[in-house]
Specification:
- The protein is globular, with a radius of gyration of 13 Å.
- It contains 1 helix and 6 strands; from the N terminus they run E-E-E-H-E-E-E.
- It is 5% helix and 32% strand.
- A hairpin with a 4-residue loop joins strand 1 and strand 2.
- By secondary structure, the chain is mostly beta strands.
- The strands form 2 sheets. It has a 3-stranded antiparallel sheet with strand order 1-2-5, with no helix packed on it. Strands 4-3-6 form a 3-stranded antiparallel sheet.
Length: 93
């Protein structure tokens, strides 16, 4: 399961991911230079050190869940509220 950017505008993008199992996927968007969170932290809508949304190393916006429609099915996850011309890292679990 490798996430990819399906489409984007200045303040939002759509993440495309196809998990091999029949599971939902959570994706967090973090500052490009943020310390990577663990899977548990992404699930908890936090960042490295369990920091909150908008804190240093925290998610830029709330973590978004994409609902699965079957193993191998593509899931599209829309993330909004981003800042134009900023670099981000995506962490999907």
């Amino acid at each position: 399961m490798s996430p990819a950017i399906d489409s984007k505008t200045a303040t939002q993008f759509v993440i495309s991911v196809a998990p091999t199992n029949n599971v939902d996927v959570k994706c967090g968007v973090y500052a490009f230079n943020a310390t990577a969170p663990t899977a548990d932290q992404v699930y908890a809508n936090t960042g490295n050190g369990d920091v909150a949304v908008e804190a240093t190393n925290g998610p830029i916006v709330a973590v978004v869940t994409g609902s699965n429609t079957g193993a191998g099915s593509q899931i599209l996850i829309t993330v909004t509220g981003l800042t134009a011309n900023s670099k981000y890292r995506i962490r999907c679990i």
